[in-house]
Structure formats: structure tokens, C-alpha cells
Amino acid sequence: MRVGNEKTYPDCPVIVRIVEVGGLTKSELMHKLRQQSVLMNELAERLFADDRFTTSDTTYILQTIELTVADLGFPDGATIVQIFKRANDLGLQLCPLELGPHLRLVYLDQPEGSLGHPLQTNQAPYGSITIASDILTENVDFPKGFYLRRINGVLWLRGYRADHLHVWNPDDHFIFCQSKESLNK
User: Fold this and answer.
1) What pLDDT, in 10s, does the model give residues 15-38?
2) What is the distance between the alpha carbons of residues 145 and 43, in angstroms, rounded to a whole number?
3) Is the pLDDT of residue 183 over 80?
4) pLDDT band for position 120 (cuts 50, 70, 90)
5) Going along the chain, which residue ranges are E strands?
6) 140-145: long-range contacts (C-beta < 8 A, 24 or more apart)?
């Protein structure tokens, strides 16, 4: 639970990561995930299989910012539309969908987040980090994006579904992009 008067972005603590993205086909990316013993749920597999999920031939660097919904100024939670708009107003950008698997490959020491917490349904699981990315379709049955999670020591790249009315909790974590830099590889 958050206490009032906490600072919001950009005047709050955030986690910054520099991630190299691109340069791999979807099958090469899938192979690297398997090499790292990363598991995927059915929704992540559906995202991977969809033709609208593309990868870049060019390698580039993304600077990402991890923060909570409350860090964006929503102490009572917010919908994805509200979250994305506020982030945009604050100069943050949505991430390319391919960041999810690339970030999973480099963020191998993600802590367990659900230990000591009750199971939740229709909510982001404790300890999960949702990648803020463009939504491919408004179809409620199709996954909206990826999130990262560690469950019983196993790393996961998972897909999620949520409609535009879903209210994310103030302590839910999101990754946004702050900058992009091309690499000549």
C-alpha cells in the first residue's frame, strides 16, 4: 500500500536498464530463449507465432525505465490507456514488442516475486514486470503483450490479456523506453 505524497516520475526511484535488441529472427530468438531454459505460456507463444510480431534485422540499444503505476501518479491504479498516456506525457515511449524476449534473455537474475503473496486472478502477478508495447489488436482474446516473471526459480516470458477497462494496481511494474540508439553491427 502506498502512502500519499510519494514522488512520481521523474522524481522517484526507477530501474534503468540498457538492452541490446534486434539482429535475430524470431526462430533465433526462440532458440536463445530455450538455451536459457526460459519457459513461455500459451499467450506468449501466440504472440511469437503472429505475423504482426516482427523482429528487426538491425541491432539497436534501448534504454528502459521500470516503474510502477503509482510512480506515474496513479495511487489508486489506472487502465492501460491512462498508463500509456501519462507515460507519453512524461516523455516515455512504448517499447517494441521484441524487447520482451530480448530483455528476458539479459534479465536472468529476476527475483521471485510471488513468495509470501496470495495467488491473484485477473491481476498482474506479484513480481511480474509488464513490457509497455503497442497492442496488436483490440480482440480481447488475443494477447496484448509480454511480461517477465520468475516462478519457483524458473524464468518465464509470458503473454497477457486485459481489456481497456482493466484497472492495473498501483504496485504493478511496467517497462517503458526512454531512448533508442542504432548500432552498426
Assistant:
1) 999 999 999 999 999 999 999 999
2) 9
3) no
4) low
5) 15-21, 39-40, 60-68, 129-131, 145-151, 154-160, 173-182
6) 142/46, 142/50, 143/43, 143/44, 143/46, 143/47, 144/80, 145/47, 145/97, 145/100
Q: What are the start-end ranges of the H helices in 56-171?
A: 80-89, 99-106
pLDDT above 90: residue 94: yes
pLDDT tens track for 51-92: 999 999 999 999 999 999 999 999 999 999 999 999 999 999
Q: What is the rounded CA–CA span in Å between residue 6 and residue 52?
A: 39
Burial (CB count within 10 angstroms: exposed 0-12, middle 13-18, buried 19+), residue 35 = exposed
Q: How far is CA 108 from CA 55, 93, 103, 172, in A?
A: 21, 24, 9, 20
Phi, psi of 128 (to 5 degrees): -85, 155
